[in-house]
Every structure is written in structure tokens, then in C-alpha cells.
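Model it.
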Amino acid sequence: MNNETTSKDDGANLHYLRVEDIIAEGHIPVDVVTDTLFNSPEKTEVMLQSNFDPIPLRMKLTKMGCIIDRKDTPEGWLFHIYRDQTLIKKEKTKDTAKAVFSFDDDIITIDVRPFNHPNDFLEVLRFMDTSLDSDCFGVKIRRLSNKFRDILSERRWICISDTKVNDSNEDDIDEYRVMILEKE
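Modeled.
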């Protein structure tokens, strides 16, 4: 089996590889398989054939979040290797957000709506800890928990204004809060 690439019905690129061919070409099987799986913007799968069970390769790929289905065939071992889609979704939803700062009525406002919970609260707390000159600031946030209220109270911040805003007419999907916090 040479390195052939085909396209399957579900849109994944399927690469056929043979361990012995990879080794004969002077390449390291782990590197070739991981490059094939992880360096493509599209969903990619590998069908790997081998005369032996490459246990170190399987262990490394499993640690990297791959799913491996193996089958003993008359031609040797056949491995169907693909990335766990739930891990890929988690990678894509990691917070790469940044807080947005603005001045509204001479009050600095921090918008943490792009963050996932609880990182939105952590960003507000980080701002509170680093802005020593501010006794009052605004926050735009999607969710306000009792835990966050308790932390504000412990740090002696009170909410002097709390307004719910809904940017769309659909069921609270774009609802957020605008709060003005003041140091006691």
C-alpha cells in the first residue's frame, strides 16, 4: 500500500499508509502519521497497514486524542486511525477572546462577553486587581452567578446599576448584563 489519498462520503480525506514502506523510505512512522492527521485543515483519517503491531505508535496516538480501530487480517494488522471529534471541538472552543475596553460617560467599561464561563469572571477580577486608580467601572457580561456576587462583596465592590440588555428579539440568546461597580 502506497500513500494514497481518497475522499470518503463524509468529507474526510482518507490516507492509506504502510509502516514498512514508511520505514523503507527512511521516515519515522509516528512522524508521518501525526503529520498526516494533524497538519490538515480538513477532517483526515489514516488506514495504516503493518506486519506487526506498532504499540509505541498506537500509545502515542492515543495520548494525542486519536481513536484507533485495529483488525488482524491475512495481510497483517490494519489500523483505522482518526482524531476524536469531541476533542477537536474542545480545541476550537478554547478561549482566544480578549476583553474590550471602552469609555462610557467617563467610566471605563470592560466587555467580557466574548469569554466562556468562568473565564469572563476571571477577566473582570484580573482587571479589578490591576486597575488601582479606578473606584468605579462598568462591566458587560453574559452571566452573573451568586459566586461572583459573593466575590465582589468580599472585595468590597457594590453594584450601583444593573441592566439587562437583549440585542435580538430571539429567546434571550443575545442577552447580557451591563453593570456599574463601585468600591465601597
